[in-house]
């Protein structure tokens, strides 16, 4: 009996068994016992349900979309960073330019203040000079005092005499001054002389400055060598004469 228990089962035979359903009669059935699983058609491959396949595909698609969105976000952030950096460089350049302009304006402002102070000082001196009383026998016109001599001297002697008074022979620089000087009447030396240069002779004032306005009589505008200015003829115009001639003179200071 014990040997039958451990004996190799015979799978090539049929087996009869009985079963009873609930409330039914006993039923006997006979089934074949296969020698191996291969005889029964081999192992059965279970295909995954279609629902699981669809879920997997949706998850894969979702991950791909998420990756694309992340990549697009990175690209957009990179572009924004580059644009922001470029804009920052432009602002930095403008800031430096504005600083440079500000420094230039500060320098110009300081220079303007200096010139304004200098101008105020000159105006003050000019005002004091205008308000200053001219010496006896001198006449005021504008900011200058004028003296007309009664004695006659050469041009050089006349200039030296004016120097002793702290003045020079008169230098006429405007129509108004010309009208004032011509009121003295007579032919008098003025501070005009013909100076010889490498380019020829030219008229200039006694201090070396150029003429700004001229009031020559007809035929007297050419700077003849050795000639000196005289004012004024009967038409209140300038003429000329040699230095050795003696004439009255007009000083200005």
Automatic annotation (TrEMBL):
Main site of residence? membrane
Could you tell me which SMART domains the record lists for this protein?
CLECT (SM00034)
Cell compartments where the protein resides: Cell membrane
The UniProt keyword set, sorted, is: Coiled coil, Membrane, Transmembrane, Transmembrane helix
The record, for InterPro entries, names: C-type_lectin-like, C-type_lectin-like/link_sf, C-type_lectin/matrix_domain, CTDL_fold
TM ranges are 61-84
Tell me which residues make up the C-type lectin domain. 141-252
Question: Coiled-coil intervals in this record?
Answer: 95-132
What is the membrane topology noted in the UniProt record heading this document?
A: Single-pass type II membrane protein
State any GO CC term: plasma membrane
Q: What is this protein called?
A: C-type lectin domain-containing protein
Organism, by scientific name, is: Astatotilapia calliptera (Eastern happy)
Taxonomy of the source species: Eukaryota, Metazoa, Chordata, Craniata, Vertebrata
